[in-house]
Amino acid sequence: MQADSVNPNDQTQEPPENSPTKVTAPTPGPISPSIAATAPGQIRVIKRNGTVVPYAEDKIGVAITKAFLAVEGGTAAASPRIRELVAGLAGQVSSIFTRRLPSGGTIHIEDVQDQVELALMRSGEHKVARTYVLYREERARARESEDVNPTTENAITINVVRRSGDRTALDMERIRTVVTEACEGLEDVDAQRILTESLSNMYDGISELDVATSLLITARTLVEEEPNYTFVTARLLLDQLRTEALEFLDVRSEGQDDHQATQSQMLDTYANAFEAFIHRGVELELLAPDLERYDLARLGASLMPERDLQFTYLGLQTLYDRYFLHSNEVRFELPQIFFMRVAMGLALQEEDFEERAVEFYELLSSFDFMSSTPTLFNSGTLRSQLSSCFLTTVSDNLDGIYSAIRDNAMLSKWAGGLGNDWTPVRALGSYIKGTNGKSQGVVPFLKVVNDTAVAVNQGGKRKGAVCSYLETWHLDIEEFLELRKNTGDDRRRTHDMNTANWVPDLFMKRVFEDGDWTLFSPNDVSDLHDLHGTAFETRYLSYEALTGTGELELYKRVKAQDLWRKMLSMLYETGHPWITFKDACNTRSPQQHSGVVHSSNLCTEITLNTSADEIAVCNLGSINLAQHVTDSGHLDTEKLKKTVRTAIRMLDNVIDINYYAVPAARTSNMRHRPVGLGIMGFQDALYRKRIAYASDEAVEFADESMEAISYYAIESSSDLAEERGSYTSFEGSLWSQGILPIDSLERLQNERGKEYLDVNLDTRFDWEKLRARVKTHGMRNSNVMAIAPTATIANITGVTQSIEPTYQNLFVKSNLSGEFTVVNPHMVHDLKHQGLWDSVMVNDLKYYDGSLQSIDRIPVGLKQLYATAFEVEPRWLVDAASRRQKWIDQAQSLNLYIDNASGKKLDVMYRMAWVRGLKTTYYLRALSATSTEKSTVIGDGALNAVATEIPSAAEIITGEPMGEPADVPEACAIDDPDCEACQ
After folding, report:
1. Could you give the percent of the chain with pLDDT greater than 90?
2. What pLDDT is stored for residue 967 in this prediction?
3. What pLDDT, on a 0 to 100 scale, did the predictor assign at position 23?
4. Which of 587, 617, 651 is the last residue of a domain?
5. Mind spelling out the 3-state secondary structure of 897-926?
6. Rg, C-alpha atoms of the chain
7. Which residue out of 603, 618, 979, 982 is catalytically annotated?
8. What average pLDDT does the structure give for the chain?
9. 618 assigned to active site
10. What does the pLDDT read at residue 28?
11. What range does the domain containing 78 cover?
12. Does the active-site annotation cover 697?
């Protein structure tokens, strides 16, 4: 059977004459669609001649059957195997479109055929798929040779159904203007191509919304060829958003009868839309009435419509889907209005609030800095819950336990991420005096916490997010390690809750020394919870001695390395519990005079004191580091200083205007005023500097950039203290003694021992001058720095999240509007310069999951520069984090990537993290040996070399089968790529 006997889809054309099975195609009707094709909720297919027909799964089946007949011969039609395969494949194709268009809509015939092709390939029917592809190519060439160009003909006859229900001729002039404006200033994009391909998908009777969607989808499919189409697509989406918002606000551009406005028309329309937005938002009880106190004409004149053009498609779509204010699902907030609304909310209590609002707006809208998601959600609204993170300690009684669970629910309700310290709760089998019974331990309560997190919806946006911490000496620690396993008693499993180990230094020393480790119930050793460093060691040893005399009866002695092995095994297999280090967090805490850090938060970057009457709160924001690297590759310290100064002021303002769901959170935040200034776009900054992540230069840049941020952040908080006064508990803090974060490393070294701390102490700035200033003027904030994951706000600004290496250079993302490609623009620029960017390269990148390492024609230098996360040796991530940590008064969300994972590698990596002075680690993203056949590690193999410097329990750990790793997450939350709890 020849390839030309295959009819790819019966909905498009007659089959070839020599096809073994003749199936009559539907007779093309007039341009006006049929009733079935226009019925609400129906999926419709646009044929190549512009007509629209109802989608029919049976016709998909006919086309697939013919493809099998072409390969297997005419008898295949009678095969039950073939019929079953065809039915399954046709169903797969239909389900794709049903998911994509749950309420009905239109698809082009080419899209149908693309999905049939993919279904054949995914099912392993490669010969059939190849025959199908060849026939499609042959028919495409035939159409080209016939010079069939229905676009012009159809454009003349296409009528559009307006939102009002009226029909009008397609406005080609406006469409051409919108597309041309969308392409302005961008290299290697083709406005005419978008117009031509979009018009081929339009039909008589198309809705106004579908006209806009057709333009957007056409541009979106071109992103993989040229990354600049992501900006084109964003601008086309912006045109839809403008129409939606202006119609709701009843604002028209000058000379317009309708509510549509092009980008150029918005220059004169934005200010009017802004004023209308504020008044309508207050009227709908969505915005705080205080916003009407501003001189709206002045603020409207400060808006910069041209900054709408800097969004990528993913960035603007993220704002549209989750951030813009809406009424009955109608978005009426435009991007620059959004940034001004956030700025106004943050400036409400400033003396010169209008001037400050403009200052804050300029910083946000420039993408130089971005506030955290809760602040973007709620600033300027009636319920201004702007904080990202909450930390609590749970008391060892029923009142305390259920009070903590209630606090979790109330805090989750307003989109906060939670960290709970459960160490004080007595262990399984311990005595309960009130009932003369025995405790069931901490695990049953954690099950309740888990289910509460699922039940409480974060502001209608996602389920609650919580992480529970337990100290490594707790008698329930072994069962705690297994909470995320998929086997065992489900009543003692927490499948939706995160967990983390709170590890004291003494335990790590016992692991190094291959010593024993004793587990206790906290009601017998209650003071261990509040001790750290040498004080903890002394007291722990005394409790161990009591077990020998019989004074302590409830305990368990294990080999430290056995417990360590289980910690690593569970981390690998379930993704939990994460590993965080108690003593580094406490010994370096500026606030150790006023309490104890009992845990970190949901994302392991916050290290604040908690107690029965204080729930720690932190307010976050992140500097876009890539925006502070010049074209010549130098760190722009002057710009960075200005950004940090304004950012710290914004974060401090959050504390005073914030809504507090529970009193203990307000008490703590007002007393200590902590903020967490972090960074994002570190990988993009390296690209601008032409530095590979796996390099000494990258480690040095991590040091250099974080030192500058640390210096300016501390200086800015001290300046605010001079203006507004120091935080209440300043006296007695390390700040008050002139001990800055860089100085606290010496304290950690003294407590832990020099042999267990290997940290670079080099400096560049005049720190002595700053020490004197802080001692004299104080600090406005007890803590000023923390590096959060930034998964969503990095999407908004179009950079890599936080301090992460690039996950993939090319990947496909799905959302409610369909699938679209995201590609690394830096890489494409370099490949174009080398003459290597073509369709073959695109397909190679898809095949190799966005990795360059297996593509022979890529130069070695580019392979190193664009190495993805699993291709960078973990030691580079740890070393860079170590250099940052010396400057940070809190911590950093550090994901660790490791391919070809083994017990030995995990052991060495986490020992190295401790020795390098890290306070916390976050997700372990591991690939097993079978998952990494396409990958090549970039680096010098130094991870293994570290084992010669750091004693290892590898020979014990490697005796444990590693199993399969936990699923690799694509964003900050391993369960939820749309996590918004922190940033």
Report:
1. 62
2. 60
3. 34
4. 587
5. EECCCCHHHHHHHHHHHHHCCCCECCCEEE
6. 30
7. 603
8. 86
9. no
10. 36
11. 3-146
12. no
